[in-house]
Amino acid sequence: MATTQATPPGPASGGGLVVEDLGVTLTGRPADVVDDIDLVLHPGEVVGLVGESGSGKTTVGTSLLGYSRAGALISSGKVLLEGRDVLQLPWKEVRQLRGEEIAYVPQDPASALNPSIRIGKQLVELLELRGIGTAESRRQGARDGLAEVGLPNDDEFLNRYAHQLSGGQVQRVALAMAFLPKPKVLVLDEPTTGLDVTTQKMVLDTMAELCRAYGVSALYVTHDLAVVANIADRVAVMYAGQIVELGPRDAIFAKPMHPYTRALLDSIPHLSQARALTGIPGRTPAPGARPGGCRFNDRCSFAVDACRAEVPQLRTLEAGHEVRCLRTDEIGLWDINLGNVPDADPDRARDVILSVEGLDVFYGRKQVVHDVTFDLAKGEVVALVGESGSGKTTISRCVGGLHRDWKGTIAFEGRELAASARKRSAEDRRRVQYIFQNPYLSLNPRLTIEQIIRRPMELFGLAKGKQATDRVLELMEQVALGPGMLHYQASRLSGGERQRVAIARALAAEPDVMICDEITSALDVSVQGSIVSLLEGLRKERGISMLFVTHNLALVRSIAARVEILQAGRVVEEGSVVTVMETPQRDYTRNLLANSPRID
Amino acid sequence: MTEAATLPDPFEEVAPPRGRSGAAAWTTWLLRRLGLAVLTLWLVSVLVFVATTALGDPVRAILGRDYNSNPGRVAQLEAQLNSNDSLVSQYFSWLGGLLTGDPGTSLANQQPVWGQISGSVVNTLVLMLLAAVVMIPLAFGIAMISAHYRRRRPDTVIQTVLLALAGVPEFVTGILLVALFSTSVFHIFPAVTIDSPGGHPWDVPKGMVLPVATLVLAVTPYVSRIVRATLLDVLDSDYVELARLKGIPEPVVMRKHALLNAIVPGIQVIALQLAWLAGGVVLVETLFAYPGVGRQLVDSVRNHDVPMVQALSMIIAAVYIVVNLVADVLSILLTPRARTAISS
């Protein structure tokens, strides 16, 4: 393999990990999930493994522990840890090695810890089973570990259950647990997905600090290049089961040579400047359905006939920078500023369509939103930004009429709206549409796409019969879904496609205001890019106003004209996006900006 | 706009709020549940009374064809059942009797009801308890083995057998067991319970084997299948994957990480099944001539012995309610999220 020669001399002894020609196949049919993976983790080094959903990055991650999920099988290759091949060891030794030498930090904070076992007990469980140390020393180890990740370590905390912790705390407990047996290698599987930027920054810093302190090598798996921009020493980009580009961080971010890496970077919004975000057309091909030649050829804007005929190998461009592309010499250089567009004009005349005044929201006796006032103009996007629990979703639910326990005024074209959607007129309900955060839960799984998108038309008497079907097809084309999906059920669609259906459903009502509640946070960055460009087009063409709820400030810069910064249910700063982001007045806003991962 | 709030230091995340002291909260909760249980039992008493006394004339029902030919007997029964009083006062005198431990006098043999049923209640409870003691570990064990081999041959075989058992009525199982172990093939266990006057059925332990086995075979499939299904869900969860990737041996993963989270649905099914046993052992008790509540209920209904039927119905309802209450308390104790929700 070209790779093994090309990488800097592997750690023959003393820490680190070498992956050689790793391949994982499906058990049911002969299809590769990942293949031809060569990767070296030097001691104390953090390597980012980046790719879209379905690229096989998690599969590679767990393979380092000799583990594959049900339905897949590690079929070839070596994972060398201090000269021993993890994949060839008897399973009892593999189990021994897990946790103690190679540790894993899982993805979802909500489900990563056992809900029935106290934190303290989960932390020391492995040591206990292996008989490492005494009961007292283990408990002390757990305390020290929690202190290292910045968590309380008294008995009260050790006796808590997972549901009594916040998402960020769970991830830090998982980090402490992984570090406790002093492993040599750490595999982190998107541990910050779903956390807000402040918590994410803290988890990332904690991880990087611990890796440096203990000389631990880490593989950080993520879909978002921006996340690894600050912590990774090297970055490997995966597509359709192969590494397509691998290099030092600076090389990847400054001189990305694979069209896929460039496309990923193009889909990331910047804090410093608005961008015309672009997604990557199409979707990652599933194992067994990958095209011949270069696997990216059907989505690549640089593809030529040779890309369809010839299978590219990883080639070394310069020290440690490898690319799997035939046309690296021909596609020129990449400019990070290529997608930049002018920021939204702060002085543009505003024609207010929706105004919120003195909004107080309650959950039972508890007040969660205090005296919030803002407005939304025609054809404008206003972003509600804040950490989890800041009340941004609550406010948008009140505007949409989904939560009715509030006081104050919400006026639409000067008319006050009733508290709950049930009491609003059909016309008001039609003109204000809501798009939910999680497209995996917001589409009825028993209905076809056509039925889902038709429903609002029938409900509001906009169209029926053949005419409605034509409108459905038209809307599907607008949100870039092929007519072939008309009779699919939602379960056959990817996350991005589902969210497009949800947008088409909202559009079917011909709304004037769309409330977008974190609609891209469950999606890959590349999919987020295409959804954002879709929304931008709708705003321009149809003059739809949008209330855009998010915790991602960089995204705000690219999509919104105005921003409301929320903290603990209050607006702490507001104004045009350019003003707020260029000259933030509040420490809170400055902190949010400082904690946002960025590549610009 | 309000006063600028500075970013709270995330390292100082506040402890979850603690409300009233845990013990007080628990007491309140438990009292409420007990109150509900008593209320349910009272409603049952109204239904039982209405069904046995208020709808139609019990005296006519008891005497049948004799009603017209035997006015003396009619008067005697009416006196004994107070059936000339208003329904409300009849109900309250009956309820008062129940509460003071005197549910009346049997019509069949003129003995106090309580003296006759106390023995059979204990007998049935012993039968239930034995069945539960055998069934619970067995069901969980089978479920764990089955889940471990998910969708491979041992699992398929186990599930097929369980489904077949669940489909066969328990008296058929009982008859098969009798044929196999008692009459036709082997002669190991007695076919009926040996019930000596003044003694207990379990004085001859051999006689308990077949009734208990029949009940266990009738109930285990349900419990086992539910626990297996929950286990499969739990085994697919992220925290189980993390436990495996942490290097926890598979048996420990199964016992500590998976079973602990699958036990609660199991408890609910066990409670339903045990409660069913309390009233539904009729067939099994009849088959094995076991002197329990079920058999007595059948006899009492046949004899139109209204006070006996009423008392037995109340006892079966009480067992039902108590078993479910215990299951709810256990479920909450075993679910940290629910448990902490009560004490905070």
Topology:
The complex is a heterodimer of chains A (600) and B (344).
Chain A: H1 2-6, E1 17-26, E2 32-41, E3 46-50, H2 57-63, E4 72-81, E5 84-85, H3 91-100, E6 102-105, H4 119-130, H5 135-148, H6 155-158, H7 167-179, E7 185-189, H8 197-214, E8 217-222, H9 225-228, E9 234-239, E10 242-248, H10 249-254, H11 259-266, H12 305-309, E11 315-318, E12 321-323, E13 352-363, E14 366-377, E15 381-385, H13 392-400, E16 406-412, E17 415-416, H14 426-431, E18 432-435, H15 449-459, H16 465-478, H17 495-508, E19 513-517, H18 525-542, E20 545-550, H19 553-559, E21 562-567, E22 570-576, H20 577-582, H21 587-595
Parallel strand pairs in A: 3-8, 3-9, 6-7, 7-8, 15-20, 15-21, 18-19, 19-20
Antiparallel strand pairs in A: 1-2, 1-4, 4-5, 9-10, 10-12, 11-12, 13-14, 13-16, 16-17, 21-22
Chain B: H1 22-54, H2 58-63, H3 66-69, H4 71-81, H5 87-99, H6 113-148, H7 153-167, H8 170-183, H9 205-235, H10 238-245, H11 250-280, H12 282-287, H13 293-302, H14 306-334, H15 336-343
Helix pairs in contact in B: 1-14, 6-7, 6-9, 6-11, 6-14, 7-9, 8-9, 9-11, 10-11, 11-14, 13-14
Which regions of chain A are unreliable across 5 or more consecutive residues at pLDDT < 50? 1-13
Number of beta strands of chain A: 22
Strand proportion of chain A, as a percent range, falls in 15-25%
The overall number of domains of chain B is 2
Oligomeric description of these chains: heterodimer
- Tell me the number of helical segments of chain B per DSSP (H or I, 4 or more residues long): 15
CATH superfamily of the largest domain in chain A: P-loop containing nucleotide triphosphate hydrolases
Provide mean pLDDT of chain A, rounded: 89
Structural class of chain B: mainly alpha
Q: Could you tell me the mean pLDDT of chain B?
A: 83
The SS-based structural class of chain A is alpha/beta
Tell me, what's the shape of chain B?
Answer: globular
Quick one: CATH class of the largest domain in chain B?
A: Mainly Alpha
- CATH class call of the largest domain in chain A: Alpha Beta
Enzyme class (chain A): translocase
Keywords (chain A): ATP-binding, Cell membrane, Ion transport, Membrane, Nickel, Nickel transport, Nucleotide-binding, Translocase, Transport
Pfam families (chain A): ABC_tran (PF00005), oligo_HPY (PF08352)
Family (chain A): Belongs to the ABC transporter superfamily.
